[in-house]
Amino acid sequence: MDPPTPSEARRLLAEAARAQDRLGSRGGWIRRYLLVFAAAALVVFPLIGLGGTTGSAVAVGGWLALVSLMSWWASRQTATERGGSRRNLAGFVVWGALYGLGLLLGFELFPGEPLYWLPAAVVVAAPLALAALVPARR
After folding, report:
1. Which pTM was predicted?
2. Is residue 22 very low, low, confident or very high in pLDDT (cuts 50, 70, 90)?
3. CB atoms < 10 A from the CB of 130, how many?
4. Is the residue at 57 inside a domain?
5. What domain count does the chain have?
């Protein structure tokens, strides 16, 4: 195969730049995805700890609905920024560990105590928010 002419090379580089711009604008969805889950965790976690049976049922039902909706939305995205999958995995793994530990501590040591459940909600949501907000490495 012959190398491209200078004009073909310029055209190919211009096409590559346009494709990269399109990909960059579509790839940031994972940050919004993580921020939505962080915001939901700020509501769901204390509602489970402070809302009694009804609050827990509402929180779990709302979380399941959110997971369904966000999974559908994520499946429709066409691109992910570099490192987006690692960012998503790391955020949710750390969130899950803190969520489980937070529930265990809360129900065992601080049942119904807003001074535990509200600050703990911030700690639980933090990994998702940080995963969304920390700049990607280049």
Report:
1. 0.81
2. low
3. 16
4. yes
5. 1
